[in-house]
Structure formats: C-alpha cells, structure tokens
Amino acid sequence: MLIPAWVFLLDIPVIGKNGRSFIFSQDIIVLLLLDGGLFHLQSVTAYALMGRISPVTFSVASTVKHAMSVWLSIIVFSNQINFLSAIGTFFVFVGVFLYNKARQRQRATFQAMAAEQNHKQLVQDKRVHAPQSR
Question: Which is nearest to 4 in space by CA: 41, 31, 43?
Fold first, then answer.
C-alpha cells in the first residue's frame, strides 16, 4: 500500500506545519477516496489501452499528457513560463508529429506490400486454375 507524501510532510498526527492539531475531517476523507478511485480508473484505463496500442504509442501519448499538464498548471495557477518548459513542449510536439509521420509511412509501406503480395497470389491462382489448351 502506498502512503501519501503529505503524511511525512505535515508531521501528522500530532501537529501540522501551522502549529495546530491536525484533524481528519470528512472532506479530507472524501478527497482521499476520490483520489484513490480516480487513480484506480487511470490504471485500469492504462492497462486496457496497452492491449489495444503499441507500447511506443502509449509512451508518446503519456509524454503528451505530461506536457499538457505542465501547460495546464501554467494556465490555471498562473505559473511563469520559462525557456526550458517552452523548449520542452516544442520538442514534445515535434516528436509527436514525427512519430505520426513515421507511423503513416510504415502503414503505407505495409499496405503496399500486402497489395503486391495479394496481386502475386491472384496471378498465381489464375495460372494454376486456367484451362489448358492443346
């Protein structure tokens, strides 16, 4: 079982950082249960998704998710944008673009190979089943 980091950071259960006694309220318990439930749903979704897509595609999607969470924190919490976060996000999107282009090219190559193989099979079947004339 994982222990939340705030257990170690707040000096629980005796006294919190502000000097007052820490009391578990109903709101904290509800938020912890909600957090655990959402984490469970994220894990189940990740495992289900891994069965449908390749691990590389899942990794690329995870990287985009992390980049979007950085930019969401910048928008929501008015965090300052620094040069490294801008460059990092740029590289994430360039990488995703290049990955998508490579996947499209790979798919087109596989389709062309399959079509060529299918055509060869049809020609071969016609030769085998063609009536022989004497």
Answer: 31
* Phi, psi (degrees; rounded to nearest 5) at 11: 55, 50
Instruction: Report the C-alpha gap between 20 and 12 in whole angstroms.
Output: 11
First to last CA, the chain: 82
* Mean pLDDT, residues 66-77: 84
Quick one: which of 21, 41, 45 has its CA closest to 33? 41
- Spatial separation of the C-alpha atoms in residues 86 and 67, rounded to whole Å: 10
Tell if the pTM clears 0.70, that is, is over it. no
Q: Give yes or no for a cis peptide into 13 (omega within 30° of 0).
A: yes
Closest among 89, 93, 111, 103 to 53, alpha carbons compared: 103
CB within 8 Å of 74: residues ≥ 6 apart: 80, 81, 85
